[in-house]
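Long-time lurker, first post. I've been practising inverse folding by hand and with some scripts of my own, and I keep getting stuck on stretches where the structure tokens seem ambiguous. Below is the full token string for one chain I'm working on. Before anyone asks, I'm not after the true native sequence, just a reasonable design that respects the backbone. If someone could post their per-position residues I'd love to compare against what I wrote down in my notebook.
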């Protein structure tokens, strides 16, 4: 997750608990690109119902989301 995120936002996240939305590291365009990469890498299908911003705020919350939604 951390590597995909670094590739999408072209920056290294200082901590697994850094709020990516609040810091501006993950904006709406980057989020869409990031979700597409998560789907391709982990075989996920992220539905509209799962697009809660809290699922994508931190690396920790993203990793939990991926684990819960892998096929």
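-- Answer (accepted) --
I ran through it position by position. Result:
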């Amino acid at each position: 997750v951390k590597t995909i995120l670094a590739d999408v936002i072209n920056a290294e996240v200082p901590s697994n608990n850094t709020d990516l939305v609040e810091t501006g590291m993950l904006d709406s365009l980057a989020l869409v690109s990031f979700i597409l990469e998560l789907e391709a890498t982990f075989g996920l299908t992220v539905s509209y119902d799962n697009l809660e911003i809290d699922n994508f705020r931190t690396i920790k919350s993203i990793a939990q989301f991926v684990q819960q939604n892998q096929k």
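A couple of notes from the structure itself: The radius of gyration is 11 Å. Residues 19 and 43 are 25 Å apart (CA to CA). Happy to go over any region you disagree with.
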